Amino acid sequence: METTKFTETIEDNHIQAPFRVGEWLPSDKKILQEWMNVLIEKTDKNPKELLPVIAEFKSFIENDPEVFMYFNLMFSQVPKKYRKDPAGNKQVRDYHHMLQLFNTIMTNAPEFNTTGVVGFPINAILDWSMGTEAGYAAFLSEKVNKQFKKMLNEWGIFLKTTDSCAVLNKDPKKGWFGADAMKAMPNFDTEFICQPELEHHGFTSWDNFFTREFRPGQRPLASPDDDNVITNACESAPYRIAEKVNGRDKFWIKAQPYSIEHMMAGDSFIEKFIGGTIYQAFLSALSYHRWHSPVSGTIVKAYTVDGTYYAEAISEGFDDAGPNDSQGYITELATRALIFIQADNPKIGLMCFMPVGMAEVSSCEITVYEGQHVKKGDQLGMFHFGGSTHCLFFGPQVKLAFDMHGQKPGLNSSNIPLKSKIATVL
Hints:
Elements: H1 29-45, H2 52-63, H3 65-76, H4 80-83, H5 95-105, H6 121-125, H7 133-138, H8 142-158, H9 179-184, H10 188-191, H11 206-210, E1 229-231, E2 236-242, H12 260-263, E3 277-283, E4 290-292, E5 297-305, H13 322-325, H14 327-330, E6 336-343, E7 350-356, E8 363-366, E9 373-374, E10 379-384, E11 389-394, E12 400-402, E13 421-425
Antiparallel strand pairs: 1-13, 2-3, 3-11, 4-10, 5-6, 5-9, 6-7, 7-11, 8-10, 12-13
């Protein structure tokens, strides 16, 4: 990989994207800017003492010379057209301002927004700085990501409290059970386990709402007695199918090819998947965020891998949809889980399910254990506050016929229902 030189300004490489994958951020950039204007105005008018975890982040930045350089440069490297918006839109000024905005976010849960869910508030705050050379380096740093993990875990604790229920109200525009939200999720009460007659529909926290479960019978399992049928592990949209995948590849380039050795973080099972097939799909912000086994088999190994939260492919430049468009890239770097399953079907053998966190997703919770036998469709785990994408790995001996339900995998595909058929073993 070429070494880049840090400078105070860099060329504008912005490309307007027509949409945001999964609607985690608004497809209309103006909506994101309006949301940022409100957040910045609220924070600037009422600055508060930094929460302990944010104060620790500040101390970390200022006492590490390398990190201090990165967090200063990443804001000065944002092109002037974004730093000084002629329309008067408010911008994140520097790392001090960034931390104040984090401080505001930490005691709030995301509100509903019909024009584009700002499901990743911190991602929105870092939107332009992630595209800079300094941001690219900083957000790959292990020590920076450890600090983000501390902060995100603290936020996760708040999102599990009753205080986080404040947004689960019937405000017509911003409430998750208001008119606009119900229009976007018209079958919510019948699809998900909830108690509509109770306050907050019976949910005890934002996290409890986010990890909601389907009512029995809502997602029937395809071909439960046929082990040749592989089912959708998440309520997700197909992103890519790759065959004859290399053990090691240049995953940071524009095409973002898969690199199994890096994706599996050096696991001992790597050799079993080189030359095999990878299926990747992404989740929606309004969707279901638990994972279910695509095959019947025995859990051989299950663990999480710490990684990045805000790294995006530098090939995406200053595209504000860069994090979403970096879905192939982050599979090698982001926080993720690896669940290896020895399928009952000998034609499949060992396969792997890998959920990948992105941005605010600070927890990939595995709910199965090594040695456990699972049936196709059984729960494997869940994302907490977020969830971006997941991959299925199959060895080179497995011959598959994929069923994408009449669509082509890509950034504009639609959800395939959980537990529906996505492939057949030939």
